[in-house]
Design goal:
Layout (H helix, E strand, L loop, with lengths): L2 E5 L5 E3 L5 E3 L4 H13 L3 E6 L14 H4 L2 H13 L1 H5 L2 E2 L10 E4 L13 H12 L3 E4 L23 E2 L4 H7 L9 H8 L2 E2 L9 E4 L2 E4 L5 H12 L1
Helix pairs in contact: 1-3, 1-8
Length: about 230
Amino acid sequence: MANILMVVSAADSLTMKDGSEHPTGYWAEELVVSHQILTGAGNTVHIATPAGRKPTVDQVSLAAESAGGEDRAQGFKDYLARIDGELAHPLVLADVDIAAYDAVVMPGGHGPMSDLYKDADLGRLLVAADKDGKVIAPFCHGPAGLLSATLDDGSFAFAGRRLTVFTNEEELNGGTGENTPWLVEDALKEKGAVVENAAAWSSHVVRDRNLITGQNPQSSEDVAKAVLAALS
């Protein structure tokens, strides 16, 4: 069985284009579904955040209309309550030794747009993980964390790599809209990533060697299953 590092944003707000603060955090479905599938297959998952702060769930993701109904919303709440001890005491990202892990998984929510995209400790871990061919699997807004990975020559570690991410269309029409401070899809393209997206709100996974990415919350299950397949 594998040891998996789940990197989660510790941000609880995102500064919008107009300067206002938008409450955010991690998206419940993405963390719950991936954690449940990965641990259910017998793997060990350790949660890590910047400075070891307890991550904040985006309350919108626990609403019935966002979760896919009252039953699913309650299921997410119940699962988060069961793993609250892990969430309350995550690893300090700066202290993580990537040699101890076989994969890095990064669920989204808008939180990564506030902290992970520029986190030097995450960048160091991702560069080392990629160099060793370890599975790297961010999804939805999680690929914002890839932006932290810079090589010694200053270039983007994932330039030229195929991936998918929460699309501009999804952000503008179902995310935070026109007030979004920046678009992750555009930022990754500008850095040289080859973005391959599918229809909005459909499950879509792209694998480029050890890099596995998912487009949106609907891709959570398929990303986790792709990680299991890659680890096997």
